[in-house]
From TrEMBL:
This is Amidase domain-containing protein. Gene3D superfamilies: Amidase signature (AS) domain (3.90.1300.10). Pfam families: Amidase. It comes from the Eukaryota. Residues 2-424, 604-915 form the Amidase domain. It comes from Schistocephalus solidus (Tapeworm).
Amino acid sequence: LSLKGYDTTLGLIKNLNNPASEDAVVVKVLRSAGAVPFVTTSMPPSGLSMDASSAIYGEQRHFADKGRLAGGSSGGEALLLAGCGSPLGFGSDIAGSLRIPAAFCGISCLKPTFKRLSHFGLVSNNTRNNSRLDACVGPMARKVDSLVDAMRTLLGPEMFSLDPTIPPIPFDEALFSGSRKKSLVIGYYTHFKGEAQVPPAPSVERAVLEVKALLQSQGHLVKEFVPPSPDLAEELLLSTFFSDGGAGLRSALSNEPLPKHMHLLRLSLYIPGFLKHLLAFIAGLFLGKPAAIILSSSIGCHSSVSVLELRHRIAQYEEAFAKAICASDSPFDVIICPTFAYPAPLASTAEIFLDTSLLYTALYNLVDYPAGVVPVGVVTAEDVKSAAKLLEDYRRSGDRTNAALANMQIGSEGLPLAVQVADPCRRNWRLNLLRQRSSSSTNCSAFMIYSSRVYVAALAHMLEDDLPVSLVVGCLARIWAEAWPADHKARRRHCCEGVTLLDTQVDIMRETWVILLSSITDFGWWRLVCGYLVTFLVVKLSCIWLQRRKAHAILAEKRRRLTKIRQTSLLHLQKNPQLEHFCSLSTRELAVKIRSGEVQPLQLLHAFQQRAAELLLQNCIAEVILEANDQAKALDLDKQASQSPLFGIPVSFKENLSLKGYDTTLGLIKNLNNPASEDAVVVKVLRSAGAVPFVTTSMPPSGLSMDASSAIYGEQRHFADKGRLAGGSSGGEALLLAGCGSPLGFGSDIAGSLRIPAAFCGISCLKPTFKRLSHFGLVSNNTRNNSRLDACVGPMARKVDSLVDAMRTLLGPEMFSLDPTIPPIPFDEALFSGSRKKSLVIGYYTHFKGEAQVPPAPSVERAVLEVKALLQSQGHLVKEFVPPSPDLAEELLLSTFFSDGGAGLRSALSNEPLPKHMHLLRLSLYIPGFLKHLLAFIAGLFLGKPAAIILSSSIGCHSSVSVLELRHRIAQYEEAFAKAICASDSPFDLLEDYRRSGDRTNAALANMQIGSEGLPLAVQVVGRPMQEELVLRVMKEIEYSAEKEQLYELFRLQYLLFSRICFCTRPGV
């Protein structure tokens, strides 16, 4: 932890004589509160050992037994505290570095959730070398009261001001005192149920069971919890430490004298991967599966694709763990479990045995849950006797790992014992999409498959007999002719029959390929080469052709089904002029109408269904939710839930938000006929509040275009000008809302997918901080392909009041219970109303100051300056803000989209028909890197630097090291941006900037403004993380003042425009 003027060596000699230039944020806050920093404590080299000894500060051993370790990497801090040398200390934790030494030394500690306390000024090599685990700062003390005082002091306005990336969650006194919830649901476990997990020592197991009985006696409900897939968790954990294949650790530890416990680690960094596989196999035979997993996982990742796949698998495990927490009727509030499998170990024990128990602590770094350690006693003589019996059993069975661990318990009487307390609560029908095939068509299909199989067998015999090539080619032609009939009507019939036949035809092609490969070696060398090439090309092209036929067959069936559903669900509704005016109201106004009895939920649903039917020609609607009518009827009879702001309100969703029984295609044909098995968490909460999901809206393929058109749902264009785009990827949602086809919608945003279409279509939206709203059930390809950007869910509406109602509804106990990874921050009414702070410090800018940045259109610049004047007139302090290094930010942004070198996008977009705006993107995915460098140079000469940056950044990363380096650079930029926010005497509360139209050269941008009169304009309001209420407050002020002063009449204009366009083009009108 940085203290100005003192070294932060990380235990490495190479870092000596390099004092910190400023205090860490945590140190600044503590100094300001009157605390007196008086010593710093030692740590092992790079923080990666349970032996906290180092060449700089010397050897460390346990205070009660000099033959045992005190733990690491915060072992120096733990020894100082245990010896009463300090009343309070701070360390860091990335896999147990606080909790392991605290448990070994008999003191308390707390590992908070990452970003609960500021990590600015915390120096760590490990976060640069791994793809997921982040080091976090935490307090250590002899008593829990000291930890409470530390957290009370730190979780205040000063830290939130110095580090704007920290969620502004003060210390929750009601939660701590128990006044909010006295009786808790507590889970416990004494060991992991996995083949590769080591059992705990008898003393450790006894400690957990005693604490269980103690908590039960205090009135808490204590029941067993089973962590899901511990072997998988350990594999993911160890793999992420070696995400870069060990390159970072090799660099950090090179030429450094290391303690003996780290010699094996350094040696493993230089062993090639194939040899590690062999050693892992041998270790599995002689040392057991735990040691084998450690060796095999240390191979790490050797490509950018494998790093991103590892990141995706960890996110999946995090979701599975959260579901296990919430699986029962009474979700767990807290979990008690062992801190480690044994008390303080012998210093002579090999590190590979010690590391087998790392999952006990590191699991809660992997899923990022807060966890603390509290001492509960000491090892007794009975515990040692039980360990001695186990030692004999392990030796007889040949289990060397558990025998070595049991041997450490001999002589451990009197050592401290502790338990770990983890907090997991950070505070029906299926639509049938395939037709039933008639028995006659099934017989016909079976005959074709049988016929093709016969010719495949004949081909095999021909190759065996070395018959002429012409005969072989003829047989191949016959196979493919049978696999796809020449008759046009037969082809159409087989398309309609479904996908099974096409799947079988693809299998036949692959079978042909296998036969040719296995038999081609019987030919001469020239026939071998020619036959290989011809066969490869013909069979490969045939498989691609059949797969595309399969996709078109699925698409045709999907379109027929959608047309039928729309006709039966929307177009048959008779127009009711008395209900039409409801469609232009906000959710706030609609809720008043429902409560007064002026309109019933079913009537309101029909009004919006009628309006949505008129917007079908915009191609913005994906699916119609068939059970919406039944839900609305039930709400007509249920008045108890009418207090909810969204009771009875129809709601639309972008189609990548899961709704049970409906496709989440991401605009890709390959994802059709794969309905979601359950609702997304956001959808569950809204349904529970009485909202009525009634349609889903379309999006472009994979969500990577400002043109929301797709082959599945058709072309989309702007409502006011058919020659212009409506924006993407939430363009379908924006068009539906702008056309008054829905009062409230939800989309997703990864780089502007909510804000760009909202600005183009003249509506409001909010992109929350990631994890302010649950992302469970949000389907996205992009988070799997990039190293940093995460898609988040956000509301869209015509009025800001509707966004406020949405956030008030979602930010409640139900969402926090369904998704324990969400910080339990309810909607802050004081922050939104302005009662806490009336006058704000607002930053603004109209353009980026960078060589590669395009200037805004005059209309966009004028809009920002008008809003600036408006806010000044309301008493806010508005001053210019300069975003740091915009060219670097753009390079980092574009590079992270191609972190895997484009492999994920190539896979997602292969064999997919794309809108014209995505043709260049697909082409760029197949251009080799050296050619992209050349094209970037040419583009820089003729199109300008912006185009050159786009092309050069699309090269992406081609190794695991470059992905992790990119992640580190983004973290550095995030810290630089936070410092820019807090640089002045009055730090900015909010920022305003223009909404960029896209990445074009200045000439193209200027040309686009011709004929743009009457198009909507918008400004973007940016707040600090987790302060969505403040963003909504300023948005509301701007909206109210703009309407009051009649700067524009956007909502009335868009309603009239849509009415004219849609009513005039509706069939039959």
